[in-house]
Amino acid sequence: MDKNSWLVYYTKGFDGVGRPTIEQETDLEILSNKQAYLRNELWLLIDNLRFGDASTNDVKKMMDEFLDTIIIPLAK
Q: If 13 and its partner were Cys, which of 4, 22, 43, 63 is the partner (CB 3.0–4.6 Å)?
Protein backbone atom coordinates (compact mmCIF):
# COMPACT_ATOMS: atom_id res chain seq x y z
CA MET A 1 0.00 0.00 0.00
CA ASP A 2 1.14 3.52 -0.73
CA LYS A 3 2.65 5.07 2.40
CA ASN A 4 1.00 8.41 1.64
CA SER A 5 -2.49 7.07 0.97
CA TRP A 6 -3.61 7.94 4.50
CA LEU A 7 -2.52 11.54 3.92
CA VAL A 8 -4.54 11.82 0.72
CA TYR A 9 -7.53 10.22 2.44
CA TYR A 10 -7.54 12.43 5.54
CA THR A 11 -6.78 15.67 3.71
CA LYS A 12 -9.26 14.82 0.93
CA GLY A 13 -6.52 15.37 -1.62
CA PHE A 14 -5.59 18.87 -0.39
CA ASP A 15 -2.44 19.95 -2.20
CA GLY A 16 -2.01 23.54 -1.06
CA VAL A 17 -3.92 26.79 -0.97
CA GLY A 18 -5.37 27.80 -4.33
CA ARG A 19 -4.61 24.45 -5.96
CA PRO A 20 -7.21 21.90 -7.01
CA THR A 21 -7.32 18.62 -5.12
CA ILE A 22 -5.15 15.89 -6.57
CA GLU A 23 -8.22 13.67 -6.88
CA GLN A 24 -10.05 16.16 -9.12
CA GLU A 25 -10.17 14.99 -12.74
CA THR A 26 -8.73 17.30 -15.35
CA ASP A 27 -10.46 17.98 -18.65
CA LEU A 28 -7.87 15.79 -20.37
CA GLU A 29 -8.59 12.87 -18.03
CA ILE A 30 -12.34 13.22 -18.56
CA LEU A 31 -11.85 13.28 -22.33
CA SER A 32 -9.52 10.27 -22.16
CA ASN A 33 -12.09 8.29 -20.13
CA LYS A 34 -14.82 9.15 -22.65
CA GLN A 35 -12.54 8.08 -25.48
CA ALA A 36 -11.80 4.73 -23.83
CA TYR A 37 -15.51 4.13 -23.20
CA LEU A 38 -16.33 5.04 -26.79
CA ARG A 39 -13.65 2.73 -28.15
CA ASN A 40 -14.85 -0.20 -26.03
CA GLU A 41 -18.49 0.29 -27.00
CA LEU A 42 -17.56 0.50 -30.66
CA TRP A 43 -15.58 -2.75 -30.49
CA LEU A 44 -18.57 -4.47 -28.88
CA LEU A 45 -20.72 -3.35 -31.80
CA ILE A 46 -18.13 -4.51 -34.32
CA ASP A 47 -17.88 -7.92 -32.62
CA ASN A 48 -21.65 -8.30 -32.72
CA LEU A 49 -21.67 -7.46 -36.41
CA ARG A 50 -18.75 -9.75 -37.29
CA PHE A 51 -19.66 -12.80 -35.27
CA GLY A 52 -23.43 -12.59 -35.42
CA ASP A 53 -24.05 -12.76 -31.68
CA ALA A 54 -26.95 -10.36 -32.04
CA SER A 55 -29.83 -10.04 -34.47
CA THR A 56 -29.99 -7.18 -36.94
CA ASN A 57 -32.58 -5.43 -34.78
CA ASP A 58 -30.36 -5.78 -31.71
CA VAL A 59 -27.40 -4.27 -33.54
CA LYS A 60 -29.55 -1.43 -34.90
CA LYS A 61 -30.86 -0.72 -31.40
CA MET A 62 -27.30 -0.76 -29.99
CA MET A 63 -26.08 1.54 -32.76
CA ASP A 64 -28.93 4.01 -32.19
CA GLU A 65 -28.22 4.01 -28.45
CA PHE A 66 -24.52 4.47 -29.15
CA LEU A 67 -25.19 7.47 -31.38
CA ASP A 68 -27.70 9.03 -28.96
CA THR A 69 -25.58 8.64 -25.83
CA ILE A 70 -22.03 9.09 -27.14
CA ILE A 71 -21.63 10.58 -30.60
CA ILE A 72 -24.32 13.28 -30.56
CA PRO A 73 -23.37 14.67 -27.09
CA LEU A 74 -19.68 14.75 -28.08
CA ALA A 75 -20.54 16.73 -31.21
CA LYS A 76 -22.15 19.51 -29.15
A: 22
